[in-house]
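G., the chain you wanted modeled:
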Amino acid sequence: MSNGTLCLSQISKLVGMHGACLHERAKARRTKTQKLSRGGQYKILLTPEQIKKIIHDRFNPLSGKVIYIGNLKGGVGKTTLAYLTIEMLSTLGLKTCAIDLDIQANLTRQFDGIKANPPVFADLVDKKLKIEDIIIKLSPTLDIIPSSLKNGLIQKTLSHETPKHYLTWFNSLCLSYLRSKYDVIVVDTPPSLTTLNSVFCLCLQSTDNLLIPACADEFSIMGIEMFLEDVKTIRESYKTNSEPKTSILINKFFQNQTNNIEMFAKISKAYPNLLSKNVIKDCAKIRETTTDKKHIGDATRKSELFDVLVTLLNEFNILKKVK
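Predicted structure as tokens:
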């Protein structure tokens, strides 16, 4: 993993500000920058804390915003999109908490420095630990609540407990605390229906995002349908008034394949109000970045990758629109 810095041209690409403007802002705030020599050229590097200071007015108001990523179909890129979002937001200086709820712990394994058998969400639900005790600090701007096979016990624990008002219970258990401590909370979920996943969706507010990544295939459509029905059922049962921004994001799209185009049209017809205008094409650079656990600032030939990062920033409404 790198030290999490970005150069001015990378910041410019992400936030839509001219490099010269960023440079002047850094100088005006007497920001102590680093210089990295590459091929005889020097690049000014900024840390996440420095980046946040010079682009603070570009952020929309953020206070405990939840980005929940889910779909009952596996292999649609939930963990990859979660990882890229987490890396991007924490590198821009936003205080970010990553939550891994998948017992496969693929998101957890993307980050170094997490010991074997860490405390996980199951320890919180089982009342063995408090929320503060299961958070692991990865950097000044990034914490994680990791996962392991132990999280497979959560469903059993909840089924044996007396019925509870889940909205109140979950907010008091962890979500109110997390919202008060972080700018953004990014949740990666398993491809399955569980009580905990349903309750998490129940507690989402109008400022939150519910993202459903999908590939252009039949099983993705089935996964979308079942996932949305589960969310609708629990939210209607509690008569919640606020609605998170829910969107279906087509991922790993092959624009030259007839089947992909046909399935995209089918999803568009089935969910015209939910299908995102953004589409993420199949991209080798994304796979390389996640497989090699590269920081977004370290990727080579990064144009495709940064296009995806800009897409995610737009999807989650992190930055103010440039007039």
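The first strand starts at residue 6 and ends at 7.

Shout if anything looks off.
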